[in-house]
Amino acid sequence: MFKAILLSQSDDKKTRAELVDLDESRLPDRDVTVAVDYSTLNYKDALAITGRGAVVRSWPLVPGIDLAGTVTNSRSADWKAGDKVVVTGWGLGENHWGGLAQRARLDAGWLLKIPAPFTTRSAMTIATAGFTAALCVMALQRHGLKPGDGEVLVTGAAGGVGSIAVALLGSLGYTVVASTGRPQEADYFMSLGAKRIVERGELTQAGKPLQKELWAGVVDTAGSHTLANACAQTRFYGAVAACGLAQGGDFPTTVMPFILRGVTLYGVNSVLVPNPQRRDAWALMAQHLDAKALEAMTIEIGLSQAIAYAPRLIEGQVRGRTVVDVSR
After folding, report:
1. Neighbours of 301 (CB within 10 A)
2. CA-to-CA distance for 176 and 192, rounded, in angstroms?
3. Are the beta carbons of 92 and 67 closer than 8 angstroms?
4. How far apart are alpha carbons 80 and 194 in whole angstroms?
5. 317: how many CB neighbours lie within 10 A of its CB?
6. Which residue in 133, 156, 228, 327 is deepest, having the highest Cβ count within 10 Å?
7. Alpha-carbon torsion (201, 203, 208, 214), positive or negative
8. Which residues are paired to 211 by β-bridges?
9. For residue 135, what are the CA distances in angstroms to 26, 184, 281, 304?
């Protein structure tokens, strides 16, 4: 038996989240069984647990888009008992049973070996949020953005993706500007690597289709008017990497930034990224993310606390990353 958060749906389409004991026979029929050490609580997980978003595609479901742990059983030649692995994306917590449990059974192709110096816990201080941030940074690098080219804006900087994007860009030598609704957290952002902050409200309202050129590059986690204004403020031939919709899924803008300034908009999806690119992203983070910075942005909770904690994350009351110790 193992403990897991199990989501079910009532006849009136309401989501019910419970911490339950399950037998391993309930696990899906897949190649590799993992004893989970840590998972995370992301915005998507919180939407699934509370039923506030159409995240879950299969019922009943164990949520959790991330996990890290130890292989206990494998029918795949690629993995053996004792291997330390990390899994992010691949539809976990949406289409497939995820990481908010003490056991998981997974397709062999979903697993990655945890690269040094990361442990199962520190891998979860990064997880999908850090992986997504790294993919955004890699998109800007492929575009040709270099340190010294100008300021790089990170929106939603207090969130998991935003915090790690600030830390990673700062470590790489970029001049980072953090957009936040929490100006009282200025010291936190500076400790991660930001040079200054801008008030979130400057970007969240409807703005002109072309505005003063400010940003050489942007990592946007918000969508909606924030993304539209970021594009309108991006310099000639700059780039915007969009990966989130914390403000909304709409994009109320015009083609002007793209056809008059040559701005490039990159969409970043971390769910179905091929493993070679995943390894590159983890290698980038292993080289440039400081363990102390990761710990400074991390809160740890137990599996038994995750259901009650989820609404706080949706309401913007949580800073940085939330790691879940599934043993408690």
Report:
1. 17
2. 10
3. yes
4. 42
5. 9
6. 133
7. positive
8. none
9. 34, 29, 6, 32
**Amino acid occupying residue 221:** T
Which regions of the chain are under pLDDT 50?
none
Closest by alpha carbon to 153, among 215, 83, 93, 94? 215
Kindly report the pTM of this predicted structure.
Answer: 0.89
278-282: long-range contacts, CB 8 A cutoff, minimum separation 24: 278/88, 278/112, 278/131, 279/112, 279/115, 280/138, 281/131, 281/134, 281/135, 281/138, 282/86, 282/112, 282/115, 282/118, 282/131, 282/134
Nearest Cα neighbor of 93 from 129, 46, 125 is: 46
Residues facing 195 on adjacent strands: none
Structure tokens, 284 = 């980038």
CA distance 56 to 276: 28
| DSSP bridge partners of 112 | 86
Extended beta strands in 208-297, E state: 215-220, 234-242, 264-267
* C-alpha span between 76 and 121 (Å, rounded): 25
H or E, element range at 124 = helix 120-143
C-alpha–C-alpha distance, residues 291 and 48, integer Å = 30
Structure token pair of residue 107? 């397709």
The 10 Å CB-count burial string (b at 16+, else e) for 277-300 is: ebeebbebbeebbeeebbebbbeb
Give the distance from CA 225 to its chain's centroid: 21
Q: Which own/partner pairs from 166-170 qualify as long-range (CB within 8 Å, at least 24 positions apart)?
A: 166/192, 166/193, 166/194, 167/192, 167/193, 167/289, 167/290, 167/293, 167/294, 167/297, 168/130, 168/133, 168/134, 168/137, 168/284, 168/285, 168/288, 168/289, 169/137, 169/193, 169/219, 170/194
Contact (Cβ atoms closer than 8 angstroms) between residue 174 and residue 196: no
How many angstroms separate the CA atoms of 47 and 53, rounded? 5
- The pLDDT, as a whole number, for residue 294 is 83
